[in-house]
Amino acid sequence: MGRCYIQLVTGPAGSGKSTYCSAIQQHCSTLGPLRKRNVHVANLDPAAENFSYDVSFDIRDLITVEDVMEELGLGPNGALIYCMEYLLQNMDWLEEEIGKFDDDEYLILDCPGQIELYTHAPIIKRVIDQMMNWGHASRMCSVFIVDATFVYDAPKFISGSLLSLSAMIALELPHVNVLSKTDLVDESRVESILDVESASVLWQREEYQRSVEDEKMMKMMRREQQPKKPQQQQQQVEDDWKRISARRRKQNRLTEAICSLLDDYSMVSFIPLNITDEESIDHVLAHVDHTIQYGEDLEVRGADDDDYAGGDDGDE
């Protein structure tokens, strides 16, 4: 049985996992001889419907969410968990499919997006453990896809970081966080957030902006209420507003502690991906290749095989 290189593509539903798989497969097919590889993509989502990539094997040949819902009367989430537990009981099917690939081949596994499969019911972790037992431990990594809107501002950035960290801890694999759909948002704003590289600084900026907005709101309320309400009622409104602000500051202590944790250990970082930019795709692929040490055991090729080898324009 061959031990191919494996990417497990994980992330929330709708984050762009299948699009990422398709982009990597198409990009690798256009590389020069030095780095060109035959990328196989397999579907491990029993609820998937359509793909934009060539499927090497599909869990729906084993079981589907639709069949489980129809036969057992389960809802979508319950049926999905049932399907993945069924996979665990039939891991010989997965072993046989993965075993068809040679040592130098590249396999991407498109995983389901339901987060409970990684946390509440750690089914994906058990699948990974079994794959490690088959000898893939040193050639496997997790690529966690997060929608760019998750880091579009400080609160979402912290939320996305915690989501990525949760998957990192649950899967216990070398981990690469990819920020998808950057071509659909203001890339300069995303880059400005990623360049800070500090959740605490981003949160401080957010709090400063909120304090400015609160002050503006208070001044506006004073102007609106002054001719209409007695002084006592105006004071009551201001006191209520101050109590709300104080409560929010108290609640923010937990957020500040989380930001400090993320900063102190530098546990989470994101690589932006623009699927319309070949350089962006290549940048992500280079990070993943380094993570799984792809190419270190492959035969060394000469300069004539280099992706970027040009014509006869060298020095005489």
The 3D shape can be described as elongated
Distance between the termini: 49 Å
Residue runs with pLDDT of under 50 for 5 or more positions = 301-306, 308-316
The helix fraction, in percent, is 40-55%
Main β sheet profile: 7 strands, parallel
In percent terms, what proportion of residues is strand?
A: 5-15%
Q: What letter string, H or E per element, gives the SSE order?
A: EHEEHHHEHEHEHHHEH
Number of helices: 10
Structural class: alpha/beta
Radius of gyration: 25 Å
- Give me the side-by-side strand order of the main sheet: 3-2-4-1-5-6-7
Q: Averaged pLDDT, please?
A: 82
Could you describe the 3D structure shown?
It contains 10 helices and 7 strands. It has 316 residues and is α/β, with parallel strands linked by helices. The protein has a 7-stranded parallel β-sheet, sandwiched between helices. α2 crosses α3, α3 runs parallel beside α5 and α6 packs antiparallel against α8. The C terminus is likely disordered.
